[in-house]
Amino acid sequence: MMDPLGLLYKYASLFRKMISAKVWSSERSIKELLSLNSEADWDFLTSAMDIVDDGSAAIGHVMKYGLRGPTKYDDLGEKYLRLYGLLSATYIQQQSIGTIYKLMNLPDPKQLRATFETLEIRGLRHKLSSHGTDLLDRATGTQQAFVPLRLNLNDGLSVTYVNYTASSMHHHVDLAAAIDAHVKMMIDVMDSIIEKSMTTIFEKSSKQKAEIASELDDLRIEKAGGWVSKTEAGPKLIVTFVDAESER
Q1: Is residue 91 classed as helix, strand or coil in its secondary structure?
Q2: Residue 108 above 50 pLDDT?
Q3: 107 phi and psi angles, rounded to 5 deg
Q4: How do beta strands 158-163 and 169-174 pair?
Q5: Would you say residue 92 has pLDDT above 90?
Q6: Are 199 and 5 in contact (CB under 8 A)?
Q7: The pLDDT of residue 26
Q8: Which one, 18, 80, 170, 205, has least CB within 10 Å?
C-alpha cells in the first residue's frame, strides 16, 4: 500500500469532492441534498472534514521528524509538546471521522467508537495526554496514574511509560506502528463512508455517482498495494502486485 497518510488524504479529498459536487449542483437545502438530520449538521460536517486534513498534517510532521523535531536543539519541552500534540491529533481525527460517519447516517456509530477504543494510540492518548492521573480502570473500578519516561523521549518514534498504580510497570510503545494502525483504520472507515454516501446522496444512474465510484475503485487498488496512473485524455494504467507466497 502507498504511504498510508497520503492515501488517507486522497480518501478525505474524494469525500470532500463528492460532497461539493452535490451541494453546489442544486439550489435545494443542504439538509435535503445530503440527507442530513438537521440544517446545523452541515456546520459539523465541514468542521470535521477540515480537522481530518489538519490532523494528517500534524501526524505527518511527527512521522517525518520524530519526537525531537526538526530543531537542532535537544529540548525536553519540545519532545513533550510533540508527544502530546501527536496523541491529540490522532484522537481528534478519530472523533472527526466518527462525526462524519454519524452525520452521513452509517450504521451503529457506537460500535465504531468501540472499535476506535481498541487502537493503541487512542489508549496512549487517554493515559498520557488526557487522563494521566485519573484514568478509570473499568475492570476494577479504580483510578490509575501514568507518566512517560523522560529518558526514553530521545527515541525518534517510540515512548515508554510507567503505570505508577500497578507496581510501576513499564510499557514500551512503537509510535510508528501505533500511528500506522490508526491511519489504516481511518482509511477503512472513510472507504465505508464514501461507499454508503454515494447511494444516499446520488441517484442510481447519476454521472457524478459513476465518477466518484470510479475514483473509489482506484483508491481501493492503491489500498490493496497497487498503483493507478491517469492522464487527462488517455486510459488509466493500473498496476497490481501479487504476493508470491499466496500463489504457491
Answers
A1: helix
A2: yes
A3: -75, 145
A4: antiparallel
A5: yes
A6: no
A7: 75
A8: 205
